[in-house]
Write a structure and sequence with these properties.
By secondary structure, the chain is an alpha+beta fold. The strands form four sheets. A six-stranded mixed sheet has the order 6-7-8-3-9-10, with helices on both faces. The protein has a five-stranded antiparallel sheet with strand order 13-12-11-14-20.
């Protein structure tokens, strides 16, 4: 039996449906992420799990028990917010101890558990400080420690790393993974940051307009998006209109307007004359000077329209003869200048026959 079951959940605000008949099962010990753009319903769903809001229809079951009539403070669930929500007049230790005090735990037990929690988040020497004396990353660790102090069955994390700078955010991602492994608590994590979701999660539910578009492991969501929304939302991707000429168990033969034939991986349920798009990731696309020999069957000439240098890689934007643009990624392994192509250069872009994916309209 799943730890958390969300069954046919719906939440409306007047004429607006924020959550539209969603069903999700989350296993014990799982790091589960709700991912989607602003306004997709993920925070509304989290608030209903926490008990801060009630559904108009459907059920939320924890360990098989319906949470409908259980107030937030009685649920074995804690929430960590982006704003940290720490008490400024309390020390770090007092902030962490607060849930135990509210539960009426004995002072000796509180002291022991707070010490353990401080060790877990590497703040053992900062227990006497106040929140305003800490860095953003340290305050976030205090919030994690307070969320875990009662050993909840479920920890809800509402964009907890959103206020941190990029480098600190990456460091906290690693700490969060380690903390979740060590404690074995089930995490339900909310974010709109795709890379964060891919790095942290066991499974991801991609949400859009109150519905779950795809629920899967990060690698499958990235490599095998279910539809155009998921493909476009997760990471960088080039999308070209295509029609199926041939559908066999080994491959698809596609016609891309103004470009020609492209061979793509086979896909269940696709048949000749189907229309849709070919979606391909920049790292799957090879870019070479147009004078170089290319062995790959899928190869087309184009012109470099621009490039984006980000240190470890450069992404080149190439315009094809049909006017479509495709991105190709090159690693910058050599020191010094990493610019291999100039804007306006004639190039060839190519990719393997098992690269990319066809998505129906």
């Amino acid at each position: 039996m799943a730890l958390l079951e969300i069954r046919n959940l719906t939440r409306r605000f007047g004429d607006f449906t924020a959550i539209d008949n969603i069903s999700i099962s989350i296993e014990s010990g799982e790091f589960f992420t709700l991912l989607g753009p602003s306004g997709c319903g993920k925070t509304t769903l989290l608030r209903m799990i926490a008990g801060f809001d009630l559904p108009d229809a459907g059920q939320i079951l924890l360990d098989g028990k319906d949470m409908a009539n259980i107030p937030p403070e009685k649920r074995p669930i804690h929430t960590v917010f982006q704003s940290y929500a720490l008490f400024p007049h309390m020390t770090v230790s007092e902030n962490i101890a607060f849930p135990l005090k509210m539960a009426g735990s004995a002072p000796d037990q509180i002291n022991s558990r707070v010490k353990e929690a401080l060790d877990d988040v590497r703040l053992s020497n900062l227990g006497a400080r106040f929140p305003q004396e800490l860095s953003g990353g340290q305050r976030q660790r205090v919030a994690f420690a307070r969320g875990l102090i009662n050993r909840p069955r479920l920890l809800l994390l509402d964009e907890p790393l959103g206020a941190l700078d990029a480098k600190l955010r990456e460091e906290m991602q690693i700490e969060l993974i380690n903390l979740q492994k060590e404690r074995g608590v089930t995490f339900v994590f909310i974010t709109h940051a795709q890379n964060e979701a891919l790095a942290l999660s066991h499974r991801i539910a991609v949400m859009n307009q109150g519905k779950v578009e795809q629920l899967d492991a990060p690698s499958r969501i990235y490599s095998f998006p279910k539809n155009r929304f998921v493909a476009d939302f997760i990471g960088k991707i080039s999308i070209m209109n295509a029609q199926v000429l041939e559908a066999s168990p080994s491959h698809l033969r596609l016609s891309v307007a103004g470009l020609g034939e492209v061979t793509a991986p086979s896909k269940d349920g696709v048949k000749p004359r189907d229309t849709g798009v070919l979606a391909i990731r920049p790292e799957q696309v090879r870019i070479t000077h147009h004078t170089e020999e290319v062995e790959l069957k899928n190869n087309f000439t184009g012109k470099v329209q621009g490039f984006l240098y980000v240190g470890d890689v450069t992404t080149y934007i190439v315009e094809l003869p049909n006017g479509a643009r495709i991105e190709a990624l090159l690693p910058n392994s050599a020191p010094g200048s990493a610019q291999f192509f100039e804007t306006g250069d004639s190039v060839t872009v190519s990719w393997r026959q098992d690269a990319g994916t066809f998505l129906n309209d």
